[in-house]
Design a protein that fits this description.
2 domains, 25% helix, alpha+beta, elongated, 3-stranded antiparallel sheet, Immunoglobulin-like, 134 residues
């Protein structure tokens, strides 16, 4: 390959200096993307695994027109006190009863519970919907 440049090469930016600038620009762009990905990973707790919670409704039983029982499981963040919202809903999905249950920090990643929810009318189902730090 020849290092000589012709007037056409100079006109259309095909000089060694231009190619070097393009390569440097690509390396800088790749480095910025890498820094952004690493920063985001650190910000979210290295993939979010350390802060994630899994909520699972195990069973739901309608006891009467005024009460629904929900058995639930919360997995994750064993050393954090939590407040979890458990709802009873009617056939249309309208919330007819709600309880906020406090979960102590137990050291065990799996926390189970049974919650009886008083309802304003007959529910169709009950479920655990969210948890947050207490």
């Amino acid at each position: 390959m020849s290092t000589r440049t012709t007037p056409l090469d100079e006109r259309y930016g095909r000089t060694p200096t231009r190619r070097r600038r393009g390569l440097i620009g690509a390396v800088v762009a790749a480095a910025l993307v890498l820094v952004a990905v690493v920063s985001w990973s650190v910000w979210t707790g290295v993939g979010g695994a350390a802060t994630s919670l899994e909520l699972q409704t195990l069973t739901s039983a309608v006891r009467s027109d005024e009460a629904t029982e929900v058995r639930w499981l919360v997995t994750g963040r064993p050393d954090t006190r939590l407040v979890c919202t458990i709802e009873a809903r009617d056939g249309s999905g309208v919330v007819v009863g709600l309880v906020e249950a406090e979960l102590p920090a137990t050291g065990d990643p799996n926390r189970r519970g049974d919650t009886v929810i008083r309802t304003i009318r007959r529910a169709n189902t009950g479920l655990i919907v969210s948890c947050r730090d207490a």
